[in-house]
Amino acid sequence: MTRVIHTGDTHIGYSQYHSPVRRQDFLDAFEAVVDDAVDGGVDAVVHAGDLFHDRRPDLQDLMGTISVLRRLDDAGIPFLAVVGNHESTRGGQWLDLFERLGLATRLGDEPVVVGDTAFYGLDHVPVSRRDDLDYAFADHDADYAALVAHGLFEPFGYADWDTETVLTESDVAFDAMLLGDNHTPDTAEVADTWVTYPGSTERASASEREGRGYNLVVFDADTAGGDDRVEIRRRALDTRPFVFVSVELREGEGESRVRERVREFDLAEAVVHVEITGEGDPVTPAAVEEFATDEGALIARVVDRREVDADGEVDVSFADPEDAVRDRLDERALSTAARDVERAVREDTVSDANVRETVKRRVEERLDGDGDLDAFDAVEAGGDGAESDADGDEWDGGGAEPNGDASEPTEPNTEPEAAEPEDSDPASTDGQVSMEDYL
After folding, report:
1. Do 114 and 201 have their domain in common?
2. Which class for 54: exposed (0-12), middle (13-18), buried (19 or more C-beta within 10 A)?
3. Of all helices (H) and strands (E), which one includes residue 31?
4. 237-251, 295-309, 333-347 — which one is most confidently predicted on average?
5. What total of structural domains would you count in the chain?
6. Given CA atoms 216, 220, 222, 224 in this order, what sign does their dihedral have?
7. 107 in the same domain as 253
8. Last residue of some domain: 236, 266, 289?
9. Most confident of 19-28, 128-137, 349-358
10. Does position 273 have pLDDT exceeding 80, yes or no?
11. pLDDT tens across 154-195, in order?
């Protein structure tokens, strides 16, 4: 029998809402996973990518992660991982550094056997390069086998990777695929193989309303009930509370009603999201946010989704600034590609943390192969240069995430990228450290 914790999308270093407290929350969540691993005496911790939020993590995030990994190492529990799209760099990976320090094992096409299970790895690979993959893995003589991979796999939401192709073309018969990138936890069976996401360990987006956690995966025919061979259990993490307040204002109701509704919730140290709908009076979001923080919230955000008539000749509804942005864009001679980029920046389905990688991917896909170079030509102002979102590009991965503020497909280890600055002094990058400083 082999018992492992399956986690991923920890996004250490993410300063959500530009908050240093939220930044610490992401490291704390990873530490909580390691605490459970040590307390539970599992055989390994398997991380399915996006350990860091950025490929150039700040020194404090790097040192904090090393400290947590050392605790795991002291307990004799191996840390097995793959590289996600957020952290991949042109050359060496942070995971390679941790491996040199004896704190991690980077999974690949050779088996890493823990207990009676062989683990393999598949780093994130962009869509444009997946046709070249041959899914060739070395043989093993263990009782079970698992593939750890980072990407958006079928049959889950926003998928762009054919899971059945991976399983049928692989040289190894896998009992499970332990995945990362989608921040929504889920499990399914594909081609007689269990395929599962643990979800992110912290809410990287306001759309991630369910509680956060990880998977406890057991490889054991008896424990799993005979022929199934694998048992997957969901374990919860105690993370920063998010409070979601919906207020529908009736005619004559305004800010006082919003405050009354907000008071109904326990806001202590919580991230609070207030959504206003209905037919009531105008509300100043900033005033409500200040009220919520005075009531104990760590962070407060207010969205007023109503259309409010404006006085005089002004035809912009400040309750919905998206309309104003669209109107101004229609006046400009933007290319189709530019509109595609603009849509990636503004659309709700792409998380804030994924915008950069989503934009890069969409541009690269237009340039790959024959390329859609006409998409970079300016169109007549006021024309319809935007393309349909029906091509499935609503989410960039990462994690997932399809979850609003954070997870997105980016370039893999082999993807060319702009050269990193050659300054070897970490202080010159405001604490951000490049691999060249260490490898």
Report:
1. yes
2. middle
3. helix 20-40
4. 237-251
5. 3
6. positive
7. no
8. 236
9. 19-28
10. yes
11. 999 889 999 999 999 999 999 999 999 999 999 999 999 999
Same domain, yes or no: 165 and 298: no
Global pTM value: 0.73
* Residue 190 C-alpha from the chain's centroid: 23
Q: Determine the structural domain holding residue 229 and report its residue range.
A: 2-236
Q: Which residues are annotated as a binding site?
A: 9, 11, 50, 85, 150, 183
Residue ranges for the binding site for Mn(2+)?
Answer: 9, 11, 50, 85, 150, 183
User: Which amino acid is it at 46?
Assistant: V
Q: What tens digit of pLDDT does each residue of 40-56 get?
A: 999 999 999 999 998 88
Sort residue 312 into left (φ over 0), alpha (ψ -120 to 50) or beta: left
Confidence of residue 380 (pLDDT cuts 50, 70, 90): low
Type of residue at 311: D
- CA within 13 Å, CB half, 74: 10
171 and 95 in one domain? yes
Over residues 148-155, mean pLDDT: 96
Shared-domain flag, residues 295 and 341: no
Residue 278 maps to a domain: yes
Regarding whether 37 and 116 lie in a shared domain, the answer is yes
Q: Do residues 263 and 166 share a domain?
A: no
Q: Is the pLDDT of residue 114 over 90?
A: yes
394 lies in some domain: no
HSE-up of residue 243 (Cα within 13 Å, Cβ side): 26
Cα–Cα distances in angstroms (integers) from residue 273 to residues 10, 33, 77, 262, 281, in the given order: 22, 26, 39, 10, 20
Whichever domain contains 16, its CATH number is 3.60.21.10
CA distances from 234 to 9, 199, 399 (A): 16, 10, 18
d(CA 291, CA 207): 23
- Which residues face 398 on adjacent strands? 400
pLDDT for res 128: 85
Active site residues: 86
